[in-house]
What we know:
Elements: E1 6-8, E2 14-16, E3 22-24, E4 30-32, E5 37-41, E6 45-47, E7 61-65, H1 108-113, E8 118-121, E9 132-135, H2 138-144, E10 149-151, E11 157-159, H3 165-190
Parallel strand pairs: 1-3, 2-4, 3-5, 4-6, 5-7
Antiparallel strand pairs: 8-9, 10-11
Amino acid sequence: xxxxxxxxxxxxxxxxxxxxxxxxxxxxxxxxxxxxxxxxxxxxxxxxxxxxxxxxxxxxxxxxxxxxxxxxxxxxxxxxxxxxxxxxxxxxxxxxxxxxxxxxxxxxxxxxxxxxxxxxxxxxxxxxxxxxxxxxxxxxxxxxxxxxxxxxxxxxxxxxxxxxxxxxxxxxxxxxxxxxxxxxxxxxxxxxxxx
Length: 195
């Protein structure tokens, strides 16, 4: 039984056997057997839990079918995961003019060496990831760089992996200096000159 459904413009849009659903403009959209589904755009077909070939995963969802994508001016805040079948492209602000109190990071190599690179299996205490994976332990990262680890509302720790790059660059620079010092000492030994 369909109830509380709205088709707001567009053409060839249908809502059947569904409740609390909306199609906003667009064309050739179909909602069947769904609950609380909303469509903006074109050529979407949503089969909800009440359809024999549908899924409850399709209910309680906002679908956007725009061939050229979505452009947002301002922030997007997601409470939950963001999944994409394609690439996610983003640039983070890093202009020197936006930064005050700029100083080199000290002891990068020691910090990086204190971390354990691990492989592991995701458990059932979370729903986002599954199977075998590799990564770091957020508690260890918090000890060396607390500014890149955040405690979520559920009490679990999350981290910004990309923020480890400055530490890796610093560690590489430290190792490069050590290598050059050793090369110089080896050269002195070969030449028979020991300082």
